[in-house]
Each structure stands twice: as C-alpha cells, then as structure tokens.
Amino acid sequence: MPRSCTDPSGADYRRSVSEIAGTHLLRLTAGKAVANTAMRWLPFFLPTLAIAFDSKTSTLAILLGVAEAAGLSTLVAGRWLDRGRERRVMIIALGVVSAGCLVALIGSVPAFAVTALLIGGGTGYVTVAGHTWISARVPFDRRARFIGVYEMSWASALLIGAPVVAVLISLFGWRGPFIALAGLAALAAASVWTIDEPPPLEVRVPLEGRRPLTRHAWTVIAASASIAMAGLSLIVVAGTWLDDVLGVSTGGIGLVAMAFGAAELTASSSSSAFADRLGKFRTVRVTTATILVGLLVISIAGSSLVVGAIGLLIFFLAFEYSVVTSFSLVSEAMPNARGQTLGLSNAISTVARGIGVTSAGLLYERFEIIGPAALSASAAIAALLLLRAASLSRNE
Fold first, then answer.
1. How confident is the model at residue 9 (pLDDT cuts 50, 70, 90)?
2. How many CA atoms lie within 13 A of 10 on its CB side?
3. CB 242 within 8 A of CB 48
4. From the CA atom positions of the chain, what is the Rg in Å?
5. What is the pLDDT of residue 351?
6. Among 159, 160, 311, 383, which residue's CB has the most CB atoms within a 10 Å radius?
7. How far apart are CA 315 and CA 241, in angstroms?
C-alpha cells in the first residue's frame, strides 16, 4: 500500500505530488475547461439562443435551472469514486457532454432541454471526479493549491471560451459553438484516457467501514451549496441584464464575459496561491462577505455600464475565490469517504443552483436585476452563518 499522505517525507508522496503538478493535472483541467465552457456560455448568450430556438430568455433560463437536477445523479458516484474509478467517471462524463452538444443541433426547445440536462449532468461528474482524484493524492495542507489550479477551468470558460463562442456564432451561427464543443469534449475524453495516473497517497477505506456523514460534514456541504446558489442566481441573468438594460451587443457580451473570466482566473489563482497559507475557513468567509459588496454595487448601477461592470467584477472575483476554496473544505469534511462526500455535496449544490437559476429567471422578469440580486444576497448570508457553524464544529 502507498505511504499515507500525512507523511510528506515519503518517496511516494514526493513522486505523486510532483506528477500531479505536471501533465496529469493539465489534462484533467483541460477536460474540465471544455465541460465548463459547454455549460457556461449558455446563460451569457441566452438572447441569441432564444431567437434560435424561437423561445423567450426566461423560458430557457428556467430550462437551465430544471436541468441542474441532472447533478443529483452524483449521489451515486461516491461508491465508484472511492473505489478509485475517478478517471473512468470523467471519461464517461465528457462523452455525455459531447452528446449533449450534438442534441442541440436539432434546434427545438425540447432539444435544448435535453442538451442542458446532459451538459449539466456531465459537468457535475467531471467536477466531483477531478476533486476526488486530486484529494486522494494531495494532502489537505496543500490541496487548495491543486484544486485552485483545477478550478481555473471555470474561469477559462469565460476568459477563452466566451469570446471564441461569440466569434463562432458570428461566423457559423448558433450551431457553431455546439459543434466545436462536441468535438473538443470527445478529444478531452481521449486525453484523460491516456493518463498513467500515480497511486493514491492514502489507503482506501473499505466501503463497509464508512460512517454516516458527521454534522460538520453536513454543515460544510450546506455552506458550499449556499455559495453556489449565491453565484448562479446572478450569473444566469448576467447576459440578459447586459443586453436588456446596459445595451451590450452579442459581441460585446463576449468581451465582457472575457473580462469576467480574467477576474475569475485571478481569483482562482489567488485561492491556489494563498488559501492554504491564510486559512481556508477565514478566506472563504471574507470572500463570501465580499459577494454582498458586489451585489450592492450591481443593485445601484441603474443604466450605467461602468458601475454595473464594476459590481459584476467584484461579484465574480469574490464568488470564484469563495466557491473554489470551499471545495477544499468539502474534500476534507470527512476524509474516510471523500468520494461520497463530494458526490453528495455536488448533488445538494445542484439543488441549490437549480433553485437559484430557476427563481432568478422569474425574479428578473418581475423585478429586473434587483430580484436575482436579493436572492443571491440571501444565499450569501446563509453561507456566512453556515461557515461560522462549520468552523466551530470542526473542533468538536
């Protein structure tokens, strides 16, 4: 059996962490970047897709929210992941993302619903598989660094993916991005398949020895889910708000999304660089509170693009840092059942995101940006309270 990750003097420890920092992590992150792009470009370009699918943006937003339910299937992923099948799960999930992109080419609202369901579910599995793979091979005192790098894929979906999608739409129409992403997802699956992965640094705990989740684990999971809800409740209507109120064109939305992606990349890299040293619980609480600052600026923006952009920038920075670092907290909430914990966390976050996304579309129609912003703020406040409780319960 490999040496425990708690012994950093071991040769297995040094070799495995070194390998993970190399091409292994790069390939996994590239695969997640494709999946994230397939999912994240949809809400930003809802006005364009609404025309293509002969629907309303609110209808498509609701479908995106309902499709979040696909993430509930990660409830059953824990057994596979804790048996060391993380890579296999990721390969299958990327194949599902590719299939989802192809279904969209049919061009109907039902097809869009199926596409959102497949992409949402596939992306959820890519996330939990990658987090489990890293968590089994990197000790907690260094884990935020590696998960932070892995989650840079979320930011790259806007920094690189959104402007590319805007160009593809301009050149080939709305089907262009779906075709490109279907091919890239298939290539990413093939790349992950070629990984000669290092062994885990810990002895896997037999499944029959698992205990029910502790109160601390449940609290950390709930806090992470609340942060996710705070983010997605606003993100899903960001593109529509930019188009309706601030008068930003499709090409302009691509550039704005690129700028936000750069901000998120900064936040992800900051989490990777500083969260381990500054303390994960402390930094998540501070950045979650900063989400509220961004929401306040957004709420007073009116029709000012400058003020609105500043508010969104603060919001994206804070949300990205807090949600990425919260993944590290979840991964160690119950070390003897990481796959189970991460799978359950993704499922609960899926419910939270689904409620946020679905509600945001309805709230935006009635109250404009103030409605989704208020929902996001409520979720952020709940996250702060849960983080405080989790910080106390970990010492019990």
1. very low
2. 18
3. no
4. 20
5. 84
6. 383
7. 15
